[in-house]
Amino acid sequence: MKKLGIITLIFATIFTSCNTDTSKPNVENPEFTKTKQPTDTLTKHLKPYNPKLPTIGLLMYNGVLQSEVIATSDVFAKPTEDGKQLFNVISIAETKNPITTEEGMHFVPDYTFKNCPKLTALFVPSAYDMYAQVNNPKIINFIIEKNKETNYIVSNCAGAQLIGKSGIADGKKIVTWIGGGEQLQKDYPNLKVQDEHVVTFVEDGKFSSSNGNLASYISALNLVEKMTSLEHRKFVESYLYLDRLKNWKE
């Protein structure tokens, strides 16, 4: 019994010394546990489609100017100040194949023309060469069909050519990229093409348009204000630091 007591004492001493060794990190330290715990960054940033929310559709195709896609998603993907999601923001293309932008980046569309859900708004971006898109009946028919269900149609830059070809905005005001207005009017005489040298953004009924590129933020912010409030627009602008761009000086 005396030997058993000694052995027990030895094990207790070893156990105590292991738990009081200050050379080992404290697992209760939040900084230590934070670095050791695995994180699922994909799940963290996924925004599941919510059928109860308005859906913003971003049309995509090879050669698209990525700034015109990113500008819209930048604006509409922002939550409220208390973190509430307001919109579904989805990308749509003819197929599920990755899209290669003008700038060389690759994007995988969320939906195709065949399985695209009902849209509240459709944004039509541009490319430097619109020949393939304007002469693609699947793209034109998609725009025509979505016009029947959407509350808003927005074109940026040469996306106005797709609007003109579809005929959905005949008799409406529209603006395009700087230098493209005259040809747009010749190609689609039923449009009321505005002078793009002095007009950056124009709205006529459910249709609105801009010069494109970073001016695409204007069309997106205008619509997000219309669909929410001026206060939310200001929140989004502050979220994006747009005031820093407005006030920037060398």
Write the SSE topology.
Layout: H1 2-19, H2 30-36, H3 41-45, E1 55-59, H4 66-76, E2 88-93, E3 99-100, E4 106-107, E5 111-112, E6 121-124, H5 131-134, H6 137-147, E7 152-156, H7 159-166, E8 173-174, H8 181-187, E9 192-193, E10 201-204, E11 207-210, H9 216-227, H10 230-239, H11 242-246
Parallel strand pairs: 1-2, 1-6, 2-5, 6-7, 7-11, 8-9
Antiparallel strand pairs: 3-4, 10-11
Helix pairs in contact: 4-9, 6-7, 9-10
Major sheet summary line: 7 strands, mixed
Radius of gyration: 27 Å
Structural class: alpha/beta
| Helix-strand topology string | HHHEHEEEEEHHEHEHEEEHHH
Spatial order of the strands in the main sheet?
A: 5-2-1-6-7-11-10
Terminal Cα separation, in Å?
A: 86 Å
Unreliable parts:
1-34
Range of helix content: 25-40%
Number of strands: 11
The whole-number mean of residue pLDDT values reads 87
Describe this structure in words.
This protein is of the alpha/beta class and 250 residues long. The chain is built from 11 helices and 11 strands. The chain has a 7-stranded mixed beta sheet, with helices on both faces. It has a two-stranded antiparallel ribbon with strand order 3-4. Strands 8-9 form a two-stranded parallel sheet. Helix 8 links the parallel strand 8 and strand 9 (192-193). Helix 4 packs parallel to helix 9. The radius of gyration is 27 Å and the shape is globular. The chain starts with a helix and ends with a helix. Mean pLDDT is 87; it is low at 1-34.
Labels describing this entry:
single chain, alpha/beta, two-stranded antiparallel ribbon, 11 helices, 39% helix, 15% strand, disordered N terminus
